[in-house]
């Protein structure tokens, strides 16, 4: 089943005198359960592409269909609701709400979606357990390490069971051990919850773990390789 | 959830939030307290006007106030009194016989308004008896050998009943008040000298004391020299019902001191029966019937009711008699408005500024919130709530401080002796007992919340203008 379909999408920035084609005629699709990584040199358009898929930005041309929604047809306010309902985000940093505890952060989106309290609590416990932080419910983000913060962010993104998770360089600020732990957790959740992951990276450790590697250069897809290794 | 996040956000930057809260507290306190102080003198003045001078409502013969004629009394007073007593809100009613005349002693004379009163009744209705200057006798004490009269200090001065002499007792008093010997030594020079007015004493004192000594001890010395011979008499002259001059010597039963010089100079009180005998007015004939109400706030509603039920008579509330006081009350209300506006404007600037800082500082976080699906309405509400919490905490702190300080100073009073003479000439006390109505507090709270909401709008809109992509990208 196709979760994301990208048809001949372009994104051009005009704000300097030169025109920058950040994404240039990309056609791709992602299946449910994909564990895909987008790689490429700096400035090749990885972040831009992820933002387009997540409905954070509009393409200049082409069409993106996510879970049956044509993103170009959604109004800005509908786009926010779309993101809340269908997309889980993990950013490189500044993921968490600093005044809330780890558990409250994980609950946050379920709260926005008005889940009943018991279900919310149960799911939060389950998610913190899966990311190995069941003893850190009450910790504030500032009391957690960078790796732990990213794990809370993954737990939060996954908790409301979105269509897929977008992660822009989730390991960029992590040491090797933390990065490995985070990847283990994402792989496990990919397996156990059939969750689709799409992320960008510079990190070879991440590339090795992916089952599909898409390479961008100057906004174009130059290769799309499925490796069938299972970890 | 958003409410709790907003509340926690307020306390993220404690120093900054506390600074704004402190500023709001000081602003609200300064405003409320100065209003309470101004209000104090008005409330005291109204209290004096109602409880010492006018009562709430008075009923006169239509001609009496302009003619002052003895024969312009109220016809059918019994019916008027019972009508008043039956009116809802009225607690006490009494009649007064009022005669205009002259008061004189060998040293001078002065025009006065002589009021014949039912002493027992008035004792319960008015507080003038409490204004008796200690040592000057009583409010119509037991000794009724002679006609007795209760007069004001100002009149007593004008008739030279009060004078200033430094007697051996005065020196004892000064020593007791710890006036230094260096000063009392100098005062020996004027021991036993009789000064007929305060001015003359002041002149003599400035002659022998240094300016500094005068400033520190002048008032104490004057108090000590103040003297009055108990049982002094004054002559009251007026016309009787047939238009003939009549009059008698009245023993001063006591001297009262209010904050209203004009009233003190003009109003003298005698027992009703004595005045009837001298003027030939019959029992039950009154020029004025006065009524006290259960509450001053009823004045506006009860007056018209009484007016309607007593056609042919002049019915006046204290507000209509003391129009200046009513006007000042209005004026003060306007000053309240200006004060309030200034406090609230300060509050608004503080909050807009703080919240803008806080929004701009959180660009990335707000971008992240929008990215993960917190919609515009929720972000707007969150920022609004943060501003409102700031203003409410500050406002409440300010009002608490105000309430406490007003509560304390309202009991102990603030003395403005420096300005005493100027204020008392107009009937205002020099002692302030700050007081303010609960309604004012409620209005101010509501206004603070409204200001908090209004000043939140701009920062909250600013937060909505942030683009999540740029917010997240900007490193
Ligand atoms: N808001 C913008 N205005 C103008 N140009 C932009 C903007 N955002 C991105 N670009 C340009 O678009 C191109 C692609 O940027 P993008 O951030 O998607 O690259 P990336 O592959 O994520 O790079 P990196 O690996 O460094 O994160 C770059 O040339 C960048 O300068
Ligand atoms: Mg990038």
Describe the protein in words.
The complex is a heterodimer of chains A (231) and B (475). Chain A has helices at residues 46-53, 76-86, 102-112, 117-130, 146-158, 176-192, 204-209, and strands at 2-13, 20-31, 35-39, 61-66, 69-70, 87-90, 164-168, 196-200, 212-217, 220-226. Chain A is α/β, with parallel strands linked by helices and 231 residues long. Chain A has a six-stranded mixed beta sheet, with helices on both faces. In chain A, helix 3 crosses helix 4, helix 3 runs parallel beside helix 5 and helix 4 packs across helix 5 (146-158). The longest helix of chain A has 17 residues, at 176-192. Chain A is globular. Chain B has 20 helices and 14 strands. The chains are: A alpha/beta (231), B alpha+beta (475). At the A-B interface, helix 2 and helix 3 of A face helix 1, helix 16 and helix 20 of B. Bound molecules: adenosine-5'-triphosphate and magnesium ion (MG). Magnesium ion (MG) is lined by residues 46-47, 168 of chain A. Magnesium ion (MG) binds next to helix 1 of chain A.
Write a concise keyword list for the protein shown above.
A: Rossmann fold, six-stranded mixed beta sheet, four-stranded antiparallel beta sheet, B: 475 residues, alpha+beta, nine-stranded mixed beta sheet, 14 strands, 57% helix, 18% strand, binds adenosine-5'-triphosphate, binds magnesium ion
Number of helices of chain B: 20
Number of domains of chain A: 1
- Which structural category do the helix and sheet elements of chain A fall into? alpha/beta
Strand content of chain A: 25-35%
